Amino acid sequence: MALEIIAGCVNCWACVTLCPHQAIIEAQPHFLIDPLRCTECVDAHATPQCAAICPVEGVIVNELGDPLNPPGSLSPPARFG
C-alpha cells in the first residue's frame, strides 16, 4: 500500500510539509513517495494528505494507477443561469 507521484507534479512542496510520515522525497523531474513510509494516511487522516493539498489533478495515484484527484475534480462547479 503506497501512493505514487507521477509526471505532471510541479514540485510545489505543498505535500512535503503535510505528509505525516515524511514519505515525500525531493527528486527530479518530480517528487517521489517512499513506498516503505507511505501509509496512504489510513492511520492518521480520513484522506491522504498529499492528495488533499495537491493543486494538480491526476499526479497522485494509488497502487492501481487511479488518480486520487482525477481530471475535473479540482475545478470549480459549473454555474448555470
Automatic annotation (TrEMBL):
InterPro entries: 4Fe4S_Fe-S-bd, 4Fe4S_Fe_S_CS. This is Ferredoxin. Residues 1-30 form the 4Fe-4S ferredoxin-type domain. Keywords: Iron, Iron-sulfur, Metal-binding. It comes from Niveibacterium microcysteis.
